[in-house]
Amino acid sequence: MGLSTHVLDTMHGAPAAGMRVALYRIVANDATLLQRFELNQDGRPAQGMLIDNASLQVGTYRLVFEVAAYFRSCAVALPEPNFLDQVSLDFGVADASQHYHVPLLVSPWSYSTYRGS
Questions:
Q1: How many CB atoms lie within 10 A of CB 41?
Q2: What string of pLDDT tens digits covers the 117 residues of the chain?
């Protein structure tokens, strides 16, 4: 199945359309950028899967979500410095034959994630 993500803006109760995200592969504490993308109207990458099943490898990955820039684009008044700037999630892929879905629920002051389906 591969790797996918989805972001929901819990402040507005809507998908985080327009949020910018970066995906990295982490090897021996070195982060290699795999791709940058912007979320569509459903709060998902336009291309669907970030990494397809054939290309997903066992190891550590990082998703970096540009939270403050997104909320500023929604005309939310944020303090300086803002509480959350970027949310960085490091996660492990133990079985590359499985689907790894990494959703983010986010507001300007909090976030949560889990391994989705």
A1: 10
A2: 799 999 999 999 999 999 999 999 999 989 999 999 999 999 999 999 999 999 999 999 999 999 999 999 999 999 999 999 999 999 999 999 999 999 999 999 999 999 998
Return the closest-CA partner of residue 17 out of 51, 50, 45, 48.
Answer: 45
Q: To which residue do tokens 């002051």 refer?
A: 109
Identify the H or E element spanning 101. strand 99-106
Going from the C-alpha of 20 to that of each of 1, 4, 95, the distances in angstroms are 23, 15, 27
Is the pTM higher than 0.90? The answer reads yes
Which CATH number do you get for residue 27?
2.60.40.180
Chain length of the chain: 117
Domain that holds residue 101: 2-113
Q: Can you name the residues that pair with 36 across neighbouring β-strands? A: 22
Counting the structural domains of the chain, the total is 1
